[in-house]
Amino acid sequence: MKKILLLLFCIVGSLAANAQSSSTQSLTQKERSFMNSLKSYLSKEGYRPEIDEDNDLAFKKEGDTYWITVAEEEEGYYFVRLASSMSCEDTNLDAVRKAVNKVNGEFKLAKAYITDSEQSILFVIDSYCYASGDFTKYFSRYMGMLSEVDDDLKDYYSEYDK
């Protein structure tokens, strides 16, 4: 069982690293067009999105920063990641790990990862979309899920940090 969990953790970490490294590359024309469609949607919804230095679409909600990354995949699909983070500095990392594992076992689409530096927790929703409308259709639900994961993780952390 430990070997399976370790293998699963390595696969998830590799996928997260791959998605993060793709965001540091320059965007293709199609990716930029897709990103601009998302930016327009977010602006209409009342956010103030900006494409940052590593080509993420960054915006804030209630003081928290969120990022959207886009990578064109085969057959015209796009890999889209919605993410936010929370610091875990000066915390009980064992309790953080237990809380992250508990949350990841309960949520199907939204996931939490402890970053390599063990200084923060990354909350993500990954999706494949053919058009930006495929993502914006569920955007409100995605944002709600990230909030739920954040809240539940904090509750579980409180339970485990005793």
Strand order of the largest sheet: 1-2-3-4-6-5
Question: Which sheet architecture does the biggest sheet show?
Answer: 6 strands, antiparallel
Share in helix: 40-55%
What global shape is seen?
elongated
Radius of gyration: 16 Å
Features:
162 residues; disordered N terminus; alpha+beta
Topology:
Elements: H1 2-23, H2 29-44, E1 50-51, E2 57-61, E3 64-72, E4 78-87, H3 93-106, E5 110-114, E6 120-129, H4 132-136, H5 139-160
Description:
With 162 residues, the protein is of the alpha+beta class. Helices cover 49% and strands 25% of the residues. The chain contains five helices and six strands; from the N terminus they run ααββββαββαα. Strands 1-2-3-4-6-5 form a six-stranded antiparallel sheet. A hairpin with a 5-residue loop joins strand 5 (110-114) and strand 6. Helix 3 (93-106) crosses helix 5 (139-160). The model is unreliable at 1-23 (pLDDT under 50).
